[in-house]
Design goal:
6-stranded mixed β-sheet; alpha+beta
Amino acid sequence: MSEQLLPGYIIRRGSTLDRALLLKFMQRTYQDLFPNEEFSHLDQTVKQYFSSDTPLWWVDFLGEGDRGANSTLSFSSHPRTPPIACLWVGNAIDQVQGNRHAHIFILYVIPEHRRRGIGRALMRYVENWAIQRGDRQIGLQVFQSNKPALNLYNQLGYQTQSLWMVKFLSAENKLDDSSNIL
């Protein structure tokens, strides 16, 4: 079932059969941010977390002629073209309150369709979906270097609740166990 997301764009629910396409979108997302890296390991993320319990939505572009408010095009009869955006959502547990809530694994819009309100519309869509299922919050992780995404999330009222910190380890960082004797 498809529905209009914005004039000229429809949103449709994906299925677990879309595993390969989801992986391509994930790799493209990370490749945009880190062009010199290789992301074949994301296959393991998809294998581990993608299921019928983690919904996936695709956004299709109907074409410039279908952007008018009075468009009567039947969404189901429109020929299938590759999607231009995706939204994959999982479940998380708030570690303070213990409540289940939605967690955005990925929101990606291909570069040719950015700055048209698609990301904002997808965020509204997932917020409405989460409210309907009884969630009281949505979580997501965003790279600090991804300024456009940070700006969008800030404009939509998202706030930093915690910081994910990492330390890269090497053999030189190894602690001498004998120094830890009390």
